[in-house]
Amino acid sequence: MGLAAFILIGVAVFFIYQGLRMDKAINAFTDPKPASYPVEEPTDDEKNGLYQRLEDFAKAAHANEQTKLSLDADDLNHLIATSPILKDYRGTAFVTEISDFFIIADLSQMINRILPGNPRYLNAKFSLTPFLRDDKTVRLDVKNITSTKYDIPQGFVDLYGQRQVLQFDEDNPILGPILQRLQSIDVKDNTIQITTFPADPE
Question: pTM to 2 decimals?
């Protein structure tokens, strides 16, 4: 066996060993199946009122008017239950509260294994913050992850925090046209508050 072949075999063995080690670590705080969370269907009045507020906000934004939209935890769960752009989160996400700083939600997130095999699922409580980037991309950043069932390593939480759970950009057919008008997105008074820029001076 040549030296090059020996080195390649050694690298492959090391990669497999590390993959098995990491997969074992991930298995310790994940589940083989996704959790199923409540889908909070609104009443007709609740749905009509929520979508009227969204429509009024969008119209004001398109008209170059400054306006603000406040959404509480019930509003977010009703949007998950009814909005086409959030259908992938139906049954896998449930907002339990909006605190002074975070959106607190039960989420089921698929975690791909290092080596080939069935995926695992992180079923846990996530602390999320909405963030409006300079390019007017809106995203939800992960700030903390906790579980009553498992001890989730802080190193994994820090690494996972580098990704975002949800993101909207200008290519989104529904939200894209108004993103450029957004001035801020804040968590305040147990709500998400979305504000557009003041009208341009004449």
Answer: 0.82
